[in-house]
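Batch manifest line 461
LIGAND: pyridoxal-5'-phosphate
JOB: complex structure
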Amino acid sequence: MSQNQLKELPSVSEVLLECDRYKSLNSKYLSYIIKTELEAYRRFAKKGTLKLKRPQITQNILSEIDRLTAPNMQSVINGTGIVLHTGLGRAPMKESIAKQVAKRVSGYTNLEFELLTGTRGQRQDHVNGLLSALTGAQSAMAVNNNAAAVLLALNELGEGKEVIVSRGQQVEIGGSFRIPNVIKKSGCILKEVGSTNRTHLKDYEKAVTQKTGMILWVHTSNYVVRGFTNEVSVADLVQLGKKKRIPVVADLGSGALVDLSKKGVPKDMLVQDVVKFGVGLVTFSGDKLLGGPQAGLIVGKKTLVNRLKKNPITRAVRCDKWSLAFLEESLRSFGDEGPSKDNLTIALMTASRKSLTKRGETILSHLPKKTVDKLGIFLVESEVEAGSGSLPEEKLESMAFQFKPKGMSASKLAAQFRTGETPVVGYIHGNTFYIDMKAVIPGQEKDLAGAISGINLKGLK
Ligand SMILES: *Cc1c(COP(=O)(O)O)cnc(C)c1O
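JOB STATUS: finished
ARTIFACT:
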């Protein structure tokens, strides 16, 4: 039996004969895919479980080549409601801005070149002025991400010395970014003070010795300690730092530049407020509440920023021309009247329930009645999180499509949406599938309606 099945396997060269349309592909990669596929079929054949005939096997291999050789990263409709979704690339940016940026930087650009003088320039100069002005800091710089910013600040100011941190701020951000580990890896000695729920100024004061390199204050951005608690403010730490002549660094995480509470987004600590306290350095992410590319922003005292710039780690974690150009664009979106419509992240975050309802209804009106009935679609009120650990306890008002099909499980429906022509990622809550409107980018309505209409209704009651 299995001998017969092995006979159904085409040879590599036989499949290659069908591969004319892949001429532009690297032929080694092509053969590699074919061999890998054939090996899998051979395993089935040996077990006697290969049900396919030779033409079908060849066809399947060709489909697999199609799938594997298309760009792997695709555009996805974010139906999770989470605007800052790390799995979906965090802060979205406007396509029109991406086009402008591509025009300026895809070729050559004045990344480190002074056009006026014809001399070597500094890549930090593209963001230093605007970032300093917006945050009220003396100086500013950008690195690869906030984790790198924290690592760099620790290494420069605290290497071989003690770094004082409250036990209530031993944050884990996700992945392997845990404050105690980062402190260790940056060559510093962790000096914990206080307890999980309460830390007092005198705890810090008592911990300061000759060995102290810096005090680190971490925004517990992704969780909340409630009840019998006490946290020492950055302002008080700055006073202590001044007295003892120790730099204070604040890792702010989400890095809000504007108060959006009037627009339904709860207020987070503002970067400029922390700068105003007189802190040495503040670090925050470029792709959280700022709405920019992945980056770590460092603002604060000029002497300290200059020291960081000279640290060898800076070179290892520097931003490329694309990040800097996108960062410049996101910073430019913050005018006197607050962030402009060009800041897509903030536009999504602040969209009202009313406007989401309107856009949701537009989508509904584009759907065939049969689809709406069979999938049991309703537009319902929802509440979502900002995501990426920003504003952890606060909910944002939104609207969502609820799906109650009779005869298909929520997970099957979710899988169909993920694997359709335009992938849509929704969420399942209490056995029901939802697509939230909060993070659906204006302009994606038609594609979303198309994706919903494209769901296979076979077998549904
Ligand atoms: C998100 C966050 C980080 C990590 O920032 P990335 O830009 O993702 O590297 C570090 N610290 C805090 C407090 C954060 O919220």
